[in-house]
Amino acid sequence: MYLILGPPLSGKTSLLKAIGGMLLQSKTTVLSGSIRYNNVNVLDDKNRELIQNLVAFVRQHDCHAARLTVDETFTFARNCKDSSSVSKQQEEEGDRNNRVESTLEALGLAYVKDTFVGDEA
Predict the structure, then answer these.
(1) Which of 38, 64, 79, 97 could serve as a FRET partner for 53 with CA atoms 20 to 30 Å apart?
(2) How far apart are CA 45 and CA 102, in angstroms?
(3) What pLDDT score was predicted for residue 114?
(4) Average pLDDT over residues 88-113
(5) Residue 105 and residue 111: Cα distance in Å, rounded?
(6) How far is CA 6 from CA 3, 60, 106, in A?
(7) What region does 9 belong to: left with phi over 0, alpha with psi -120 to 50, or beta?
(8) What is the rounded distance in angstroms from the CA atom of residue 84 to the CA atom of residue 63?
């Protein structure tokens, strides 16, 4: 896990979008060079599914269901991420639950897994 710090408008989000293959070229955006993960070109279309299973991007203002617990929120996110990939068919339900538990542990959130996410309202 990495932390990227910088002042507003310094390009932190653009960098992360480029790394995640989410920054598309347009008339105002020009990308050059290559982005590699374990020596695999991220921008190559044949590797897109592989990279999508390894990299996740969370927007600055993510929306949450206030009445779900932290555990339910992570489980829902995991199921959504798996819904369009072959891994959902291959992965056992227990494996998905173990991945959620290990993610909560890694982020130091296991102790609040049964707490409601809530909202600012």
Answers:
(1) 64
(2) 30
(3) 93
(4) 78
(5) 8
(6) 10, 14, 24
(7) left
(8) 20
Contacts of 43 (CB under 8 A, 6+ apart): 21, 31, 34, 35
Strands 40-41 and 36-37, bridge-based pairing: antiparallel
Over residues 39-97, the pLDDT tens digits come to 888 777 777 777 666 666 666 666 777 889 999 988 888 877 765 554 555 555 667 67
Cα 69 to Cα 29, 56, 72, 121, distances in angstroms: 39, 21, 5, 17
Of the candidates 24, 50, 25, the one whose C-alpha atom is nearest the C-alpha of residue 37 is: 50
Would you call 69 helix, strand, or coil by DSSP?
A: strand
Q: Please, what is the end-to-end C-alpha distance for the chain in angstroms? A: 30
